[in-house]
């Protein structure tokens, strides 16, 4: 349940912003269903183009930011948003680690542009896709691709009530144990990023006998080198190990470093 602190003042202003992304994390907010009515009752939705055309000027009490910084315009715009926001929360892998589009960071972006677009001169982009925190101060990062809607609700509740969000920092493996899911690596020799990935998805992939893909990014102090050695012992080649760490959170520092260590191109 989302409840703002009781006050005679106006409702806190909530703004939801989009940068380079697929909109999936914004949709997680709309997917709150029954709780969405409570959210709408606790805050004034001042800016949220995914849900309404109404735009109310800032400053904003809480800004939720989805998406990565990929253009010069993005880099300027996020600073303006930060200046108008008392609390800024980034939501999703794009906003917290650059997203799947951060794969551009490992190759020649100009080459991609020339190969894809008939008129490359029309494209105004940065060579990298980076997290919001690489450009402005962030008050809290909520991981996931997309974010867990229940975690999003907890972050909103905590922010409105000026307390620290209760979000697990442990690994996906703990989530598997809690659900009684058999370890896919131990039982089947399936490569899995669960030991180094933060919990949050509800052990979705291991629950269907698939290895974790790392959607929620690196857990607290992940031992990626040890996991990579174990993957190699299972017969996974160096290139495939690099690619395993280069997906939704490819530019997260620990995943990026481990991917680079196995890049044999």
Walk me through what this model shows.
By secondary structure, the protein is α/β, with parallel strands linked by helices. Helix content is 35%, strand content 11%. The protein contains eleven helices and five strands. The chain has helices at 24-30, 34-42, 72-84, 93-97, 109-116, 149-160, 172-179, 184-188, 224-233, 238-244, 253-261, and strands at 13-18, 44-48, 60-66, 85-91, 140-142. It has a five-stranded parallel beta sheet with strand order 2-1-3-4-5. Strand 3 (60-66), helix 3 (72-84) and strand 4 form a beta-alpha-beta unit. Helix 10 packs antiparallel against helix 11. The N and C termini lie far apart (50 Å). The model has no long low-confidence stretch (mean pLDDT 93).
Fold blueprint:
Blueprint: E1 13-18, H1 24-30, H2 34-42, E2 44-48, E3 60-66, H3 72-84, E4 85-91, H4 93-97, H5 109-116, E5 140-142, H6 149-160, H7 172-179, H8 184-188, H9 224-233, H10 238-244, H11 253-261
List keywords for this structure.
265 residues; globular; single chain; 5 strands; 35% helix; 11 helices; 5-stranded parallel beta sheet; alpha/beta
């Amino acid at each position: 349940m989302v409840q703002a602190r009781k006050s005679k003042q106006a409702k806190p202003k909530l703004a939801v912003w989009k940068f380079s992304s697929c909109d999936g994390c914004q949709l997680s907010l709309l997917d709150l269903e029954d709780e969405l009515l409570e959210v709408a009752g606790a805050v004034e939705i001042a800016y949220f183009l995914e849900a309404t055309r109404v735009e109310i000027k800032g400053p904003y009490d809480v800004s939720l930011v989805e998406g990565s910084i990929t253009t010069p315009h993005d880099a300027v715009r996020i600073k303006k948003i930060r200046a108008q926001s008392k609390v800024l929360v980034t939501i999703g892998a794009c906003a917290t680690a650059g997203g799947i589009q951060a794969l551009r960071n490992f190759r020649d972006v100009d080459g991609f542009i020339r190969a894809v677009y008939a008129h490359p001169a029309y494209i105004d982009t940065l060579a990298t896709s980076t997290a919001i925190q690489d450009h402005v101060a962030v008050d809290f990062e909520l991981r996931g691709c997309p974010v867990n809607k229940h975690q999003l609700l907890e972050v909103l509740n905590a922010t409105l009530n000026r307390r620290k969000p209760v979000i697990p920092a442990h690994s996906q493996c703990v989530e598997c144990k809690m659900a009684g899911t058999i370890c896919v690596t131990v039982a089947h020799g399936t490569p899995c990023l669960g030991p180094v990935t933060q919990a949050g998805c509800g052990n979705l992939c291991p629950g269907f006998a698939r290895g974790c893909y790392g959607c929620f990014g690196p857990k607290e102090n992940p031992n990626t080198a040890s996991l990579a050695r174990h993957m190699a012992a299972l017969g996974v080649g160096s290139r495939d190990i690099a690619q395993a760490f280069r997906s939704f959170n490819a530019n997260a520092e620990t995943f990026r470093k481990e991917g680079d260590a196995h890049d044999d191109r």
